[in-house]
Amino acid sequence: MTTLDTRWQNSPADDGRAGTSTTSLESLAEPYRRVHWTDPVTGAHGYLVIQTLVSGLATGGTRMRSGCTLTEVEDLARGMAAKTAVFGLPVGGAKGGIDFDPQDPRATGVLERFFAHMKPWLDAHWVTAEDLGVTQQRIDDAFAAVGLGQSFHAAIQRSQDPGATLARVREGLETLTEDECALGDVIGGYGVAQACLGVFETRAWMMPEVAIQGVGTMGGAAAFYLHEAGVHVVAMADALGTLYDPNGLDVPALLDLRDEYGTIDRTRVPGTVTLLPREAVLAVEADILVPAAISYAITPANVEDVAAAVIVEAANTGVTREAEAMLARRGVMVVPDIVANTGAAAWAWWLLFGWVGTDPADSFDRLYTEMRSKVARLLEESMRTGVSPRETAWSIAAANRAAMDNMAEAIIP
Q: pLDDT tens across 307-320, in order?
């Protein structure tokens, strides 16, 4: 495998920016294609944004939530393009979004009709997966309904042996960890946990504490692996409120009380746990705050509530740019989503290219190595140059994307 993100190994004498304006790269880059859709049955609106195509492919999840906008999808597509570039993946970035309540009984039909409309893109270019409001199972069921089989279809049909590739991908997605969890459901949260642990290691914090907003697929797995590593997860917030224990929550026990929407059954929560309002998680005294619920969770309206020294974004664009600037003036650092929450996307492509097998240990080991090294170098370079971690990451993404322009088309075995 060719590793493109060589700037992580730059000598200290080289700031690695090469004169690139990261702000313009992030805010002004025009998407390759925007596609609008209106559901003929419910009137729901949906959007596909292809930010970049690399080797004719782009990857990015499909989300469904009431209030989802084209601007939101565009922002997420830009972020996805940066994520793939930072991790040296030979694929572009995209995003799909539907403005509809995922708990509405009509949601399945809406998702199927959205994919039917986007079928030319899904057949040839766009590889999608689960995202906010949509599980991977719902994605795959909708793909089957429109005759595409599996959500990695656009990449699989380009492979040298599509049947063998499909079998390998399905086997990987069905792989269970020692805790009987689907590897694909927890690998992203494991990556977020490693990003947090990388921060602790860099700052030499001995007894770290973490607060996590959101205990769904990403937040729940991050909480689990942090707890397993000996970190005190002192607060976890879901839709009903914040669960708090300054001595550390029993994370595995609480996660077992979740329903399918990531809500913890309050009737079975131990009496040692304090029940606080949902937004109280932001104000909990902790070393790291992990927003893992919705995009734009931390805004100028609530940024002054944040008590943590570092924010690690598990949610896509968990912190608005205005809020991030306000945090920076207080000395609060944000480790951006384009590094911290890329584990699941990177793993999916490692699986497609055969760079990891079906042994979970191989996937965990690879993600551990890549995430720890990226976070360490990110923080080192940011502190040395005075450039924010987000700008530093965008600069690396731009350098990697430019390098990919000169590469031969990636071959999927």
A: 999 999 999 999 99
